[in-house]
Design brief:
The chain has a single domain, classed as Thiol Ester Dehydrase, Chain A (Roll). Helices cover 34% and strands 34% of the residues. It contains five helices and eight strands; from the N terminus they run H-E-E-E-H-H-E-E-E-E-E-H-H. Strands 1, 4, 5, 6, 7 and 8 form a six-stranded antiparallel beta sheet that branches. It is globular.
């Protein structure tokens, strides 16, 4: 099912219009199927999978694919933090809105909101980057139209993540 959803995102990219602003949310919709649930509610791994699909949707529209393919950049999701708000029921269509919320020379930070209308099911924060071999590629080099744009004020979740990563390394 994941591969079919990824193919849908790729086809939307190939036949759709690209946004001009990498800071605006990119949305995609998915139907919750029996393959996504444990008994009658969406399983926890499904939320992470929808965030992954949201990042792919965002990437298809905002990443420099010429550089990606020529330079053989490899995307890496470093970590995710999932805050569940409520369960998603079977055969519900959900929308995943992915927004680039902050970046530095090492990582890009995303917020994924899984919702249906005004009902938010989960908010997922993820951070990641691109690598070429062992060399880290800065997000400003990978994202189209990001050069010259200053990141917004650093969200509190990013402070938490950076301090948590330093504690984890110790």
């Amino acid at each position: 099912m994941h591969k079919i959803r990824l193919l849908k995102i790729l086809l939307q990219y190939l036949f759709g219009k690209r946004p001009s602003d990498p800071l605006r949310p990119v949305t995609c919709q998915f139907l919750i199927t029996p393959l996504d649930v444990e008994l009658t509610r969406a399983a926890s791994h499904s939320y992470a999978m929808f965030a992954n699909l949201g990042r792919w949707c965002w990437s298809f529209q905002n990443i420099d694919w010429n550089g990606l393919l020529k330079e053989r950049w490899v995307p890496l999701t470093h970590s995710e933090l999932i805050h569940y708000r409520r369960a998603i029921k079977l055969f519900t269509t959900v929308e995943v809105a992915t927004t680039l919320i902050w970046w530095d020379d090492k990582m890009a930070y995303f917020e994924h909101r899984i919702s249906q209308g005004e009902t938010v099911f989960a908010v997922i924060y993820s951070r990641g980057t691109f690598f070429k071999g062992r060399e880290r590629i800065p997000p400003m080099q990978c994202v189209v139209d990001l050069v010259g744009i200053q990141p917004p004020d650093q969200p509190a979740i990013v402070d938490f993540w950076i301090s948590g990563a330093e504690l984890f390394r110790k």
